[in-house]
Structure formats: structure tokens, C-alpha cells
Amino acid sequence: MSNFYEDNAKAFIDDTFNCDMSFQYNLFEKYLNNAEKIMDLGFGSGRDSLYFMSKGYDVYAIDPSESFCINAKKLGIKNVYNLYAQDIDFENMFDGIWACASLLHVSSKDLNFVFKKCSKALKKNGIIYASFKYGEFEGERNGRYFLDLNESTINNYLKETNLKIKEYIITEDVRLDNSTKWLNVILTNK
What we know:
The chain is of the alpha/beta class. It contains six helices and nine strands. The chain is 27% helix and 31% strand. It has a seven-stranded mixed sheet, with helices on both faces. The longest helix is centred in the middle third of the chain and has 14 residues, at 108-121.
């Protein structure tokens, strides 16, 4: 793992904190029936954790960047964990997992393992929102590793999990001056 986010924490936070995520929030929340506890996996700027806290959810914010964790605590986010997605170890705890543009940094050899850990962390009928850059690229891009997925290739990483695709939508990037397309997927833990 590169030090990209440690080296560029302030610029990343400035670039992403005020993005309008209302479409993605609505996609996720329409499946959060009577939900109480959410994991924000790879929380970055803290934007989404703050949003879900403002809606009354008990949020567990997880990110491998120490700089992001320090920032999250300054923002008043509680339950901040400095962990990689591969290292989460929760069981039957969350109604939902929000993984916005975070699992795309997990290698293809580790993504199925991470989805198994996420499935284990979810309660029965829990849901995951995950987003990936749309495509089939895998490798380094601008100092970071990316695994781009589409509506077919994501299935390769759901094997031997309890996760099934409930819905997916392809969207434009919410950041200004960016033409990236995104795969937004809702997974359910059956």
C-alpha cells in the first residue's frame, strides 16, 4: 500500500468533503429498514460518517490512514478505527456497510476475502453499498492501486460469501471536472 493518502490527506479531504452524495445516500438508505448501526469502511474525509451520524445511526468509521483517523476525531466522529479492510473482525454487528470508493483499493487477490469479512460483520439481511470505478482496469494509477469493476466482474469476488447483488447503478463522478463513471452496487447478506 502506498502512502498516497498520508502524503495527500489535506488535498483529498478538501477535494471530497463537500461532494453531493445525496443520490448514493438515497440508494443505500432505501434498504436500511430499522437500521441502527453502520460501518463506514474507508471513510476518507469523514463526510459520510458525519452524514450518517446526523441521521441518528451509530457509525463505526474505519480507515487505514492515520491522518484521516486524526481528522475524523477532530470532526467529532466517535468509534474511529485505524484498520485496513482486510483487518476488520466484527461479527453479526452491522445493519449496513458503506464502502464508498474504498474497496477499489483492495487487490483482486484479497477482495473476496474482504467481502467474506464484510458478510460476517453484517447482521442477517444487512446490506452493503460499495462503489468502484467502472471498467476492467487493475493496477497503479496516479500513485494508487485500483481495481475497477463492472456489473459482471464483481460477481467473481462474491463467491463463497452470503452476498448477492440487489441493485446496481452506473453513475457519473460527483467531483467537478471528472469524467469517471462509477459502479454503485447494493449487496444483501442473505
